Amino acid sequence: MEKVEVGKNGVVWSTGEEDGGEDVFACKESDALAADHLVVMVHGILGSASDWKYGAEQFVKLLPDKVYVHCSERNMAMLTLEGVDVMGERLAEEVLEVIDRKPGLKKISFVAHSVGGLVARFAIGKLYRPSEGGSMEQVSTNECKEDSKGLIADLEPVNFISVATPHLGSRGNKQVPFLFGVSAFEKVAGLVIHLIFRRTGRHLFLTDDDEGKPPLLRRMTEDNGECQFMSALQSFRRRVAYSNVGYDHIVGWRTSSIRRTSELPEWEDSIDEKYPHVVYEEHCKACDVPREYTKEDDGLDELEEELLNGLSRLSWEKVDVSFHSSRLRFAAHSVIQVKDPYMHSEGADVVQHLIDHFLL
Q1: pTM reported for the whole predicted model
Q2: In this structure, how many other beta carbons lie within 10 angstroms of the beta carbon of residue 218?
Q3: What torsion, rounded to 10 degrees, do the Cα atoms 254, 49, 230, 310 define?
Q4: Phi, psi of 42 (to 5 degrees)
Q5: What is the mean pLDDT of residues 110-136?
Q6: How far is CA 304 from each of CA 22, 137, 185, 292, rounded to the nearest angstrom?
Q7: Mean pLDDT in the chain?
């Protein structure tokens, strides 16, 4: 049975059937009817729809007649351990259900935290359809065109935004900071991670081997018979990666910002008073010529280099964030999304930055 809650800030939370997630929209009926841009917000591992409560409310509060927000919950809690692909399938089904019950939607964007960014990338691969008369050229042939058009669930794709997402996986040197960069710890983690995070752990540490196929994250850097992963990603008008430069003990800076160590920028305390925790911004153009792997490459192994080269065939906006002087800096992985509006309020400027730069 549907449960509707009207907040004091003019925002309505509508909770559908079990595991159906939460729709967030303006209290004013004319605004809610006018909103034609679906924003799908995806939580991370062991998370729930409430993880994006603050972000969802800010979206609707600031853009009441523009956006209709859905906080995904089809993969909540322990279901996040069943694998990126399984979660991606569920998310794709959930998005289609939202579109069915909200007529008039024309555009779609994704905002995803942590592993949720990988789940969203899989889901859009399932939901992607090329434009009429268009060809589905595989990105792996280096013929990736930035103006390539297509639809996601028959809607115009606009923003794909990841927040502290391990795009290069978690097995490389310092990709999981709480292992302190000690290679012995990292090797052991790769061997036992499935005992803790099960199939999702194998995907993150690139140790999955489904029927002799390459690891899933590697397959997600190209179009193949499984899904049009890269065509889907390039169909968005912009792709953005928000990353913690430090104190994120779950996801390292390199993997979340899709960079080699030598490419990590020097940063200052703040570049804009309005966003005190945003310390660096970069617009990276698409790179058609992949860099050849050498063993001296910044702690990356050959497989990680393939992931980086694949994702770098598309342009990215990269936003680097630092909570080094915050009282809860050791919780940076949660602060960056304001997972708890009270405990993690110092990340509010990052959410504000995300909304201020959001294309409508």
Answers
A1: 0.90
A2: 17
A3: 10
A4: -120, 130
A5: 88
A6: 35, 24, 18, 12
A7: 87
